[in-house]
Amino acid sequence: xxxxxxxxxxxxxxxxxxxxxxxxxxxxxxxxxxxxxxxxxxxxxxxxxxxxxxxxxxxxxxxxxxxxxxxxxxxxxxxxxxxxxxxxxxxxxxxxxxxxxxxxxxxxxxxxxxxxxxxxxxxxxxxxxxxxxxxxxxxxxxxxxxxxxxxxxxxxxxxxxxxxxxxxxxxxxxxxxxxxxxxxxxxxxxxxxxxxxxxxxxxxxxxxxxxxxxxxxxxxxxxxxxxxxxxxxxxxxxxxxxxxxxxxxxxxxxxxxxxxxxxxxxxxxxxxxxxxxxxxxxxxxxxxxxxxxxxxxxxxxxxxxxxxxxxxxxxxxxxxxxxxxxxxxxxxxxxxxxxxxxxxxxx
Amino acid sequence: xxxxxxxxxxxxxxxxxxxxxxxxxxxxxxxxxxxxxxxxxxxxxxxxxxxxxxxxxxxxxxxxxxxxxxxxxxxxxxxxxxxxxxxxxxxxxxxxxxxxxxxxxxxxxxxxxxxxxxxxxxxxxxxxxxxxxxxxxxxxxxxxxxxxxxxxxxxxxxxxxxxxxxxxxxxxxxxxxxxxxxxxxxxxxxxxxxxxxxxxxxxxxxxxxxxxxxxxxxxxxxxxxxxxxxxxxxxxxxxxxxxxxxxxxxxxxxxxxxxxxxxxxxxxxxxxxxxxxxxxxxxxxxxxxxxxxxxxxxxxxxxxxxxxxxxxxxxxxxxxxxxxxxxxxxxxxxxxxxxxxxxxxxx
Amino acid sequence: xxxxxxxxxxxxxxxxxxxxxxxxxxxxxxxxxxxxxxxxxxxxxxxxxxxxxxxxxxxxxxxxxxxxxxxxxxxxxxxxxxxxxxxxxxxxxxxxxxxxxxxxxxxxxxxxxxxxxxxxxxxxxxxxxxxxxxxxxxxxxxxxxxxxxxxxxxxxxxxxxxxxxxxxxxxxxxxxxxxxxxxxxxxxxxxxxxxxxxxxxxxxxxxxxxxxxxxxxxxxxxxxxxxxxxxxxxxxxxxxxxxxxxxxxxxxxxxxxxxxxxxxxxxxxxxxxxxxxxxxxxxxxxxxxxxxxxxxxxxxxxxxxxxxxxxxxxxxxxxxxxxxxxxxxxxxxxxxxxxxxxxxxxx
Amino acid sequence: xxxxxxxxxxxxxxxxxxxxxxxxxxxxxxxxxxxxxxxxxxxxxxxxxxxxxxxxxxxxxxxxxxxxxxxxxxxxxxxxxxxxxxxxxxxxxxxxxxxxxxxxxxxxxxxxxxxxxxxxxxxxxxxxxxxxxxxxxxxxxxxxxxxxxxxxxxxxxxxxxxxxxxxxxxxxxxxxxxxxxxxxxxxxxxxxxxxxxxxxxxxxxxxxxxxxxxxxxxxxxxxxxxxxxxxxxxxxxxxxxxxxxxxxxxxxxxxxxxxxxxxxxxxxxxxxxxxxxxxxxxxxxxxxxxxxxxxxxxxxxxxxxxxxxxxxxxxxxxxxxxxxxxxxxxxxxxxxxxxxxxxxxxx
Lengths: 347, 347, 347, 347
What we know:
Strand content of chain A: 15-25%
Largest sheet of chain A: 7 strands, mixed
Mean pLDDT of chain A: 96
Distance between the termini of chain A: 29 Å
Number of domains of chain A: 2
Largest interface: A-B, 52 and 52 residues
Structural class of chain A: alpha/beta
CATH architecture of the largest domain in chain A: 3-Layer(aba) Sandwich
Shape of chain A: globular
Oligomer: homotetramer
């Protein structure tokens, strides 16, 4: 039976679940359990994540990153409030307006910046440009950072702290989209706390589906237990309160147990780094962005990319850019697959 | 390891997944698969359900019944449209307004009727009472039937057809909430087609989570492929397009394979019938509604219910009714557990 | 030029504006004025209404009763909150879901009661029946009373106080739809304060359009300045912040100046009373409800109503009731018109 | 009594109503009239505007430009659809998200372009950049042009036609925000038809409030009677169906009668041109944009603007730009006031 040596670098969300995750789901399948997140697995989430982050943490388990992001933003933003995010942000480009939907017509405002990142000054300028017009304007209400970014780069703790400071001065709530949060932590070799609540982040969409789970994400609240009730109402009202939530919670518990999540993130980062080095050494191809997590954006010729495809390599042609492609490495990318990719590039 | 002889009759949504379902999930976990329902499992759904129902069927896989119901109703109802449903309907009482949310403020109108069922005349009278006031009123847009009902009863094919006729005459769309659809089919010993599209039902929330799955429901469209695009937009926009949809679709495929779903439904119906007979034979306790599926509503004394609890039996005290309790039987209720329940009742 | 002796008793919202109101609009038309309710007329509203009600009052001027009601309810009710109102309420039956729209899918819950009124016990029972189910249910958030009611009856101060007490005990906000508030005050011969803030009402849709204005209503906040900002945001966002608000505010100021509003309400109440006496004295026709304001609901035969129409009388056949019709008297109903109506009835 | 020689150039929406408009309102105040736009004035709108535009035109009278714009866009755009407009558009910056609200979370996408205008190629590029990502992305649904623009410039008929062609090729609906439509027609000296339906515009927010009315706008549908019902539902549901709509309709009829609207627009354009010439001739101050309608944007020094204020001139300091101010001329700007302004500039 074919299992690996897949040469699929399209996206980490095409990867299967890790064995330990699947095992946890199987183990959660014994006997009856109270429904609607009143089960024993869900009951352990707050403690488990509080320990991981070293601070009291409220956990709202859900099935998708889109709903984790949307609940977080809707919980802190009035319908006439705006959320500032990078122009490449997933919430802006890939969620079909779920944040606007959950937030009853809130507005997302793009902030520009190189490498998928904006800085505190960029944010401040954009917010400043949108204030002072009273009820006629949207009211700046929140900022959302993506970590690691959509470009495969990573914000440093200091960069995050600076952005959070700016946001706080303007009474804006602070959210982090951590669909690939593990890759960022692995990359920075820091504690999860350092780049979240210690830097000022109040809400984190802690991603797990892309990095070894089936369908499990956790909306984490740091010092914002005031929005817990609203978040739970939004989860129910959007149809995301699974009756058998235990299977989601069991995934999350197994994911963060004994550092499994970081181990998997480290693996995918390492594979990305191997390929990045190969691109760097290539006479023609080059890197579009610094490679700091598990995504590699390669600038090359149409013919070059065609040769890779001919070699059986799967990757994402970037929409609207003939000269750009994305390669994503996952927890289950085999080292030999990365080697094959590098060889194909060099050919 | 304790697995069974649980005396838990609170709800079928507290039951674990059936072994075959879990096995299917494990088998779906090999290798990478295209994301967002472009996988091979999801690709087989239309054919599998078309065969089961004997008519071309469009399948929208989702994780919860609430979202299946809400997408269906929102897809056919304008914000100023109303949906007629039974006063006890789940969409009205237990979904925190998810249909109103997905439908941008549509209105649910309760219709009364004994045993959790309303009939065509009830519907017609209610709709008639709400028309003729132009833009000032909500516009009747859809009817939603629950099968089996919230009271554990079942609509006959003829009853459904009569309701559908009435709805069609008023240009209303027709939805069935089939959270316990399997129990209804098993009860009537009919084909799934007879009580759905052949009777006039256009959209069915085909439930699986309560009857042996982890988290899997299918919104089925019969002759309404015109709303497929809208339904898919609503699924994405509400955060319900799982990147790894394969695990949901794999559950659904296993669920309907070789009649597994009906076998499980039959089992829970049978256990319910055994207990219903015991209640019927009891000198004091009596049945609140005819028992036609897997739910038994028992009218009794506070002391009586207390004795059951003292015997370790778990069930649902009906909110607001001291003299009423609900017992639900599931695919994994052991026969010996039902026997113990009957004995405890008789004591 | 035909001006009066119109035999139009269909609705007070078909009446023209009173001369003094039109005069105020004309006078407001001199020179430029700051836009968006920053004009001098709007600036005087808070003081003028605070004096009228004998308590600090925040005034939000708008053009329609529907938006006054909807803004009030949306400002105090979350999307998953419910508003309790009488089954005949305008907000429930005649506003096409504007409260649901402004409130992002809030739910209106009808309460039954004779004569268009419900009492504290009715409310309490209904709210009780809808609580205790956590995130699965709508959360009772507000109660809305109509004064005078849709049936032409009037709540006493004591009745209102009892309802408000019940609402407060359940942490529900309290709104009064006063589309015909003047008729209620005139009927009770009380101060406006007695049946509003002194009894516990927090928000009043103070109607003026039906009683002599062109298009002017005031949302009044008593002790709820906390929702002022939200109310103003909702007004803008729903397109109701007129650039030239001065014309609305000028109407409101003229309306409450020197008791004009009560004078007009008293006139229409008196005309209604004259007709009510005639109905009472009639051998066949009878009153459906006590006549306490400016509306008279007459139960009679189809032939009887036909005779009135043949005599050139215009009135409203009640939808769905062949034996019921409504006659509304306005600030400009001429006494001779009422006499003619009574004669036609007696014929 | 002070009436004129006001030196107020802040905004045309601060001007009073023209005498003929007020006279029409007074004349509409005789006797009763059917409510909710079933009056004789409203009944004449379709014919009157059809004649003015030389094509069958459906008219939806409303009180504000914000709601006219929002109804139009919401009627043709699904919640997951996007509307393309200029970055300076009123719908984007000054309506507090009313289009998003009416459109249940639709998205506005800014298009850049000099002088407040974008061209067909700009639009095409922006739309192209946002397509091809299926349910994950917003779906381009409409384009909204502002005529005259927020910068006081005017699109030619050819420019409009080119934009409409592009939109049609992408199945996008076409709306024009004509808050200052009269100024554009007066500027181009064309027929209203040439720059609307003949060029491809399907829906026009025909503004009147800024140019001599109290509170009156008309949403016009050309060849889009298919959205009439939806538009009327949205008007009601947003609280904009005035019971006494006759006063709005009477304003509109008087406004377009015998060319009054164009006469007034011509006057304000002429006054703007006089001032523009003075700015042009000034050694320091200069025009930020070509002056093609009734708005003049002046670039100058802080000291210069201060001198104008010291001379009693009122105008708008542009938010975020110390060196920019806006001067708007209205139907009632006296020639002597313009002269005084020019003198103050020259001082």
